[in-house]
Structure formats: structure tokens, C-alpha cells
Design brief:
Layout lengths: L2 H19 L3 H14 L7 H31 L3 H14 L3 H27 L4 H14 L4 H13 L3 H12 L6 H13 L3 H8 L9 H22 L3 H18 L4 H16 L3 H8 L8 H17 L3 H15 L2 H4 L14 H13 L2
Helix pairs in contact: 1-2, 2-3, 3-4, 4-5, 5-6, 6-7, 7-8, 7-9, 8-9, 9-10, 10-11, 11-13, 12-13, 13-14, 14-15, 15-16, 16-18
């Protein structure tokens, strides 16, 4: 080492030591690098090597902080890929849980943004095949994106791949709710696959304020008679009947109409409720009672209010039970239908039957 090099070495050593003692590791490292360049034997110096290692470590942490700051700025500007790269570099220096969570969130956001771009392209295309291809690419990026899945299911319907649409819609509703447009496509797929009741149940979920709701109801109403026939044949559960009935009531109240189909659904509901002894629900369905009733209604009301009077302490039910029961007892056509107390094979004349039914009434 000549005199000039020695002078530079001594200056670098003095400044390096000064900055190191002040914990300015960035500048200390710069001077230590100069010393090492002038005297390579320093690599074997234990103290120098430890000081240099500490400087490198602290410098890496300083750069890490700057990288995190830069990543946050990129994230704020929605430059998600650049932000994710910064956070990944910071995580490589020192692993912290919050950074791992942040990287995961950015990956999900990036995938979602890419998927949304592909969905937007799909929506702008008028060709269902092209739409489907964009949806498939979007799901490769973000497999759990429900918006993409819904768009893809709609594409299947447009392409008349109804079974594929049904399978995908079933997967979607396990984790997500459907909007009115999705419900229409889901119902249409059911209809084309031969599942009429399931189709109408999906359409019954469409919001009445939706712009196309009235058109959907017209289609619903055209198919309802066939659905009622199917319900009568297959003894559907009451929840199904209630859902269809509520949808019909919603639109008929809006349009101030009263269809035969609505009354038939109500009749089916009453039959199902009667089987399970849900008399209060039946009461809610039939009230208010018209002053003019048929013999069939008189029979129903007599039995209904008799059961309600037996099961509750509501005096209004007792009053109704007495009125309807007496009216039915003295109507010969209904008399035998009320004779639930007579023994099998017992033959009673009208007067004896009336007496037995009056005795039953006295038990209330």
C-alpha cells in the first residue's frame, strides 16, 4: 500500500469508526467498503468482519423499511403487482406475520381485479361462446370469484347447456346468494331441464321491484296451472306451496286481481296445514271470513274453530266454533261429515246424530 492509499485507508477507517459509533450504519458501511478495497486482508480480521456484518444487516433493514413504504404507496395508487413485489422483498429480509397476510390480501385483490377485467370483456361480447371462454380464463385466475361463476352459469343457459348451468348454480348457492337476474337464469335452466316446480321457486325469489319482474310473473302465471296439477299429484311440502302462494299474492295485490290459481294454492296449503294440525295458520289464511260462504267452507270452518276452541282459551274461537258448529249440525248435507264421534259401523238417525254432536259441543 503506497502513501496515498494509506492516507485514504486511514481517513476511511477514522470516518467508518465515527459513523459506526453513531450507529449510522449506511455511511459506516460505505467507508468500510473503501477500507476493504484498499486492504483485502481485513476479511480475516474478526472485529472488522463483525462490524461489517452488522452494517450489512442494519442496511438491509433500512432498505426493507423503504421498500415497505414504497409498497404502501403503490398499494394506495392501486398498483397492486408493484406493491406485492415490494412486500415480498421485505418479507424475504425479515419474516413478519402481518407482511404474510398483506401479501395474501394483495394476491387475492390482484386475482379479483384480473378476473373482473375478463368478466367485463365477457359482458361486452354478444357471443355466448366468447363470454364462456373469458369466464374460464377468469376462473383460472380467481377460482372462487362468485361473480365470474354466475356469469359462467348464465353463459351455459344461453348455450342451452342446462345441466351444466344447474350444477354450477348449485355450487354457487352453497356460499352465495343470487340476485334477480341469476334467479331468472337458474329458474329457466330448471324449466328447460324439466323441473317445473323448482323453476317457479327460483322465479318466486325475484325482487318485485326488478325491471323485468312483471314479465317474469307473466311467464310464471302461464306455467302455474301445470305446477298446481303437479303439486296435487305429488303432495309437495307446505314450504313450496307457501313460497309460490306468497309470490302470487304479491303481484295480485299489486295488480288488484284474484286468480283461481291463487285460491287453489291456498286450498293446497290448508290441506297440508290440516294434516299437521296447524290450525292457527289456517285461521290466518281464511280470515277475514266473507258473510257468504259455501257448504264446503262451512264444513271447514266448523271443524277448524271446534279444534281451535279445544286447543286454546281464546273466547273468540269458542264463539265462532259454536256458531259454525250449530249451523253445520242443522244442515243435513254436512251433518254426517261432522260425526267424528260415532263408532265404526254404528247406524244413527239424523236426530240421534244431532244429539251426539250437540253433546260434543257442550264439552267445549
Amino acid at each position: 500500500m503506497n502513501k496515498n492509499q494509506q492516507k485514504k485507508y486511514d481517513q476511511a477507517a477514522a470516518k467508518g469508526k465515527q459513523f459506526f459509533n453513531k450507529k449510522n450504519y449506511q455511511l459506516a458501511k460505505r467507508h468500510f467498503d473503501t477500507m476493504l478495497r484498499l486492504n483485502s486482508s481485513l476479511r480475516d480480521d474478526k472485529i472488522f468482519s463483525e462490524q461489517m456484518a452488522l452494517c450489512k444487516q442494519q442496511e438491509a433493514l433500512r432498505l426493507r423499511k423503504e421498500t415497505i413504504k414504497k409498497g404502501r404507496n403503490y398499494e394506495h395508487k392501486d398498483k397492486l403487482l408493484l406493491a406485492m413485489e415490494c412486500f415480498e422483498n421485505a418479507f424475504a429480509v425479515e419474516q413478519e406475520d402481518w407482511l404474510q397476510i398483506k401479501i395474501k390480501q394483495l394476491k387475492e385483490k390482484t386475482a379479483q381485479a384480473q378476473a373482473e377485467q375478463l368478466v367485463s370483456k365477457a359482458e361486452n361480447s354478444n357471443d355466448p361462446d366468447t363470454q364462456l371462454q373469458y369466464c374460464k380464463k377468469a376462473l383460472e385466475v380467481d377460482a372462487e370469484n362468485s361473480a365470474v361463476q354466475k356469469q359462467m352459469a348464465q353463459c351455459y343457459v344461453k348455450l342451452q347447456r342446462y345441466n351444466d348451468a344447474l350444477i354450477l348454480f348449485q355450487t354457487i348457492i352453497e356460499k352465495n346468494t343470487l340476485n334477480s337476474v341469476d334467479a331468472y337464469y337458474f329458474g329457466y335452466a330448471y324449466l328447460q331441464a324439466g323441473h317445473l316446480i323448482a323453476a317457479l321457486l327460483q322465479w318466486a325469489a325475484i325482487d318485485s321491484t326488478h325491471p323485468q319482474a312483471e314479465i317474469v310473473y307473466q311467464q310464471f302465471n302461464q306455467l302455474l296451472p301445470f305446477a298446481i296439477k303437479e303439486l296435487r299429484q305429488n303432495s309437495a311440502d307446505n314450504n313450496t306451496i307457501e313460497t309460490l302462494y306468497a309470490f302470487v299474492c304479491l303481484f295480485e295485490e299489486k295488480n288488484n286481481t284474484d286468480s283461481q290459481e291463487k285460491n287453489e294454492l291456498k286450498s293446497l296449503m290448508i290441506k297440508q296445514l290440516w294434516k299437521t294440525g296447524q290450525y292457527l295458520k289456517i285461521h290466518d289464511l281464511i280470515t277475514p271470513i266473507s258473510p257468504e260462504i259455501t257448504l264446503a267452507q262451512l264444513e271447514l270452518y266448523s271443524k277448524l274453530y271446534f279444534n281451535l276452541a279445544c286447543e286454546t282459551e281464546d273466547l273468540s274461537f269458542l264463539e265462532q266454533a259454536i256458531n259454525f258448529w250449530l249451523s253445520a249440525i242443522y244442515n243435513e248435507k254436512l251433518l254426517y261429515s261432522l260425526a267424528t264421534v260415532q263408532n265404526a259401523g254404528e247406524s244413527l238417525n239424523i236426530f240421534s246424530l244431532q244429539e251426539k254432536l250437540l253433546t260434543k259441543l257442550e264439552t267445549l
